[in-house]
Amino acid sequence: MRQWITFILGFLSFLAVAIIILVLYVGNKPYSETEDQAIDRAKSEQLIEEVERSYVYTNTAASVTVLGTNSKGELTAVFVPKGDGEMQTTPLEDKITAQQAREIALSEMDVKEILHTKLGLESDGPVWEIAFLNKEDSLNYVYLSANDGTWWKRILNL
């Protein structure tokens, strides 16, 4: 009897782990496919050659930011809108880096934990979105201009 209980518990544990892995894979698949399509589109139009990183950035409309180097070896960001919209590029050599943006946010805000830092395109140009938790565990989003590090927008205490 004890062997049956051990077998059933082992099988149910294995089944639970398999279901969790399946849900995570299926849930992440649309993001992965969108990022892959954006990378292929940026490469096919020869806006970028080597990709370092890509992620989905959402403001009024979703887009994918592809970071990497162009044919001249310059660090570049390509903003690929969802659908067939026009792509935009921004050289990052003279821009604020992600680390500098995080340091600005850390120095001026009450930050407990930074959740992510993403570069995206807004109406005023490229901005760094920094999502973090403050000491009271409230969710906060701050946006800094990638051109000069000035504050663009703050969404606090969600």
TrEMBL record:
Residue stretches making up the Cell wall elongation regulator TseB-like domain: 37-81
Keyword terms of this UniProt record: Membrane, Transmembrane, Transmembrane helix
Gene3D superfamilies given in the database record: 3.10.450.40
Record field: transmembrane: 7-27
Superkingdom per UniProt: Bacteria
Record-annotated PepSY domain positions: 95-149
A Pfam family annotated for this UniProt entry: PepSY
Record-given protein name: Uncharacterized protein
Species: Planococcus antarcticus DSM 14505
